[in-house]
Structures are given as C-alpha cells and as structure tokens.
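Handout, page 2. Input:
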Amino acid sequence: MIERLNQISLNDFIEISCGNYHCLLSHSETASDVQLKERASKLIIDYRSIVSPIGMKALLMDKEDLTKENTKLLLLNICKNLIVINSYSEVRDIFRIMDVDIYKLDDNQVREKLDNMLHTAIFEHKRNEERRSGEIGDFKRSTPEEIQASFDSEIAFLMTFFKINIDSHYTNSAVYANIVHQAYIKISIRKRKTYIFITF
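Output:
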C-alpha cells in the first residue's frame, strides 16, 4: 500500500480526494475499507500540511480546542454527579485541577458556580460543534466532479503562472503540493509589494 505522498501520482491523489481509495493498492495487495480510508486521510493531511502549513496548524489547534472542550465538559459533569452525593471536597479538588478559584466560596456558591460554568460550557460546545459541522458539511458537499474540476482549474492556473507543464500522471503529489505552496508564497509577496506600492 502507498505510504508516502511522493509515491503517488497527482492523478491518483485526485482519485483519492474524490473517494476512490483503491488506487492506493498495487494489483496484488488487499486492505480493508477502514485501512484504505485511514491511509487516504493521512495522505490528504500530508498534502495539506505542505500546501498550507499555517492552515494545518489552525486545524490542529481546532482539534486541541475540541479535546479541551470535551475534557472540561467531562470534568464539570463529574462535579455535578459528585454534588448529588454531597462530595464537595472532591469537587473542590477538581476545580483546583481546572485552575478555578473557589477558595472563598461555600458549598452553595460552589454549586452555583458549577451550574454557571456547566451552562456556559454546554453553550460554547454546541456553538463550536455547529461551526465545525458546517465546515465539514461544506467540504463533504463537494462531489467528485467538483473536486476534479477544482484540481483541473488549479493545475491550469499553475501551468500558466510558472510556465511549466504539469502532467498529472507523471507528477507526484508531494512535488505538486510544493508547487502549489510556492505559488501561494509568490502571490503573497506580489500582494504585499502591490500594497506597499499603493500606500506610498
């Protein structure tokens, strides 16, 4: 099975992006659908991290934020259950771990603080989930034809921009990702120069 981005042609990478994962296998190989999806996801993440390292950092930070949100919700729900059995000392311990100052609060105030924090955390989690699902939904709504058309348009632009020929059957995906990244850099530099020229 293909393991690295530089082992797969741009044409096959486009096929993977469209959901056809079997091009990851040689004729004699077999793999489960789960294995193929996992490998395809890894290759797509590798591609995106080359094309847009800043975008990948943002994605990783978003995943980290999601983990923190889930952890906070879990801890607050544990505290809620502990209050039901009057275990306020354990609740105070958890709040200390969460770096929440409740030192001067009595048990009733701790319960109120927990209620407020839990309602806020649930609201923020739902709002962030809606945002995330909207972004995922936008991505998932792309049909294979739209994905192919997007790559075709991008390839045509890059060939014109760099005055080179890109054959998707012979160009490997890692090289293509670096070409896209270089185009972004050059375009960003041009925009900055244009902005400086206009401001002066």
